[in-house]
């Protein structure tokens, strides 16, 4: 389904459309195949699909959400009439045709058409025209509009999947040799250390975080990092490997093209990031955090500086769990670098970190989103913030913030942790925001 360039001798390269024989699919992430020219090697499972299945079609996107379908179809490379088919979120086994459209009332939009099944295995959108399969349905609507908003043009371009490992050889290796990494461009620095764009073995772009010397126990770090590597979700930055044999410790992760969300927001000089974009980002972050919540994993440092931005406003949660394993004295409630303004009062005052203290931090992150990167509690130092928050002070609604967003901020800042919303609730709320909360919202000119 995609081109792939082998990264090690045990892998094999291929181009989109190449056919291969499957020899072994016992490993979840890497399949052993034989190419038509006799070459054998491993390939990443999410780059290939079995022939003559829906998964092998360019237009089939599988189990993606309605919101993700809309985001993909509104990318600049998806012209009007571009389309995809996804599995229904509410009715597994049922499919939906999604089409990029533009009309007078909604402007640039995506229309969703339920594909209904026939008892004989066929399918249809309108009962007067039935098809034997989805491929026949697509071909028909590429020629005739017939009840759709417009004729179908091209399948929505599919972004390449994120690799689960650096290569098949590192799938069971957590520690990799430091000399296989090349640090290139400094992307940023923070309380944990510096982050560089780099490459692994000269073939694979990665982000490399260098941790400040003496900032943590190597043994403790490795214990926690093993857990962090097992966490897999498309809204979490993928953790690939570490280098701990000497200092500074390196953490190797998926590379996100546009850096931290904080810098991204502050650099938006022309206000190209609209309120709908910001709401969508909130939804994506809540999705990643809902996954951590389901694993009972606490982030401890959720803030815009620890969210990374990819292409087309895709955002992912980074640095989950790192705050817990820092030995640095500065990174405790009395230290200069402790993020008091992002931390729930029960965590800052009594060290009671929980998923609910992460929810408090998410409320502060909403403030950062709506103010495009302003520091929370403007004009107040950490000591004053702690005192005022304990007395019940909460920040006012930022300028141009929709009421529905500010309501959720206040709920996240409830003094009683158990009365704060779950991340699952927050994800659903922001994912459906312009359907259920503000269906008539329009951007001001």
UniProtKB/TrEMBL annotation:
It holds the Pfam family SH3_1. Residues 1-53 form the SH3 domain. One of its GO terms (molecular function) is non-membrane spanning protein tyrosine kinase activity. Its EC number is 2.7.10.2. Residues 59-156 form the SH2 domain. Residues 181-434 form the Protein kinase domain. SUPFAM superfamilies: Protein kinase-like (PK-like), SH2 domain, SH3-domain. ATP binds at residue 209. CDD domains: PTKc_Src_like, SH3_Src_like. It catalyses: L-tyrosyl-[protein] + ATP = O-phospho-L-tyrosyl-[protein] + ADP + H(+). The keyword Phosphoprotein applies. Belongs to the protein kinase superfamily. Tyr protein kinase family. This is Tyrosine-protein kinase. It comes from Candidula unifasciata.
